[in-house]
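It is worth pausing here to work through a concrete case rather than discussing structure prediction in the abstract. The textbook approach is simple: state the sequence, then state the predicted structure, then interpret. We follow exactly that order.
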Amino acid sequence: MIGEASPSEQAAPELRAELRGVRRRFRGGAGVHGVDLTVAAGEIHALVGLNGAGKTTLMRLMLGMLRPQAGDILIDGTPLTGLPAEAWSGVGHLVEQALAYPELRARSNLRMSARMHGASPARASAMANAVADELDLSRYVHVRARRLSLGNRQRLGLAAALQHHPRLIVLDEPTNALDPAGVILLREAILRRTRSGAGVLVSSHHLDEVARIADRISVMNDGRIIGTLAPGTIDLEHAFFSLVHADDVSRRHE
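Step two, the predicted structure:
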């Protein structure tokens, strides 16, 4: 059709995050070794791997919690080293464990998190109320964080990561300690944000769960991306372990 762009001429997807040849090696050899990875706007990119594969380290590098020894990291096209402080208001994350002030009530924790992301006091209160409803935390908003159950502390951490509708969302094993209802609420909350243009990087041990929502699944092993899995793959676990086993065998014969 005249005037219609060919696939090769169509605009490349807007990248919320891009890693190019990122490396961070720790004593003993563990770490991240030359990883390339992108997270596009409107995409859920799942990162899966066995314990110790380097998933959390990769996320910490993306968020500036660790410095890479080599490679480049860009957030919305801007190198991490030159990212202005206000740009972090467009990022939401939960890595390793939910962070909350134990003596503050859940609502106060949410308000404080919103204020740290640039919200006005009135806007912070509205955001806290909205996300508490969204993740079914409303009945616990007056409970001090230290008195919350493990599952509700996880919901609180997720609420803080999602309430400001960030452009980039990074979640490390977000379903840890969540009951089935919490998993469903989180799934729906993530999908709502990607439909609004957010890019999401999520790690998980639960292949069946990430397959429900992921647009792409990257497999990480020994600090490297070793392949991808299609979310609709039949017997996803078998495909995952086959990839990891083949990589382990290949490295033993190097």
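Step three, interpretation. DSSP finds seven helices and ten strands in the chain. The two ends are 51 Å apart (CA to CA).
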